[in-house]
Sequence to fold (59 residues):
Amino acid sequence: MIPPVLYRVDEAAEALRISRSVIYELIRSGQLRTVKVGRRRLVPVQALDDYVASLGVAA
Fold:
């Protein structure tokens, strides 16, 4: 199986163990990078790693 490089918002929320609304707030505040593919907003795996690192927690 190929590991994902982009997560849907709900998958990113699940990976970080936070709610979708918190994910959207992180996106709005610029703390979490996303990309748009068509109408979908996706979160790169690297963006999750960068966010966690910004918290001072090892990924």
Summary: The beta strands are 6-8, 35-37, 40-44. The chain has three helices and three strands. The chain has a mean pLDDT of 94. The first strand starts at residue 6 and ends at 8.
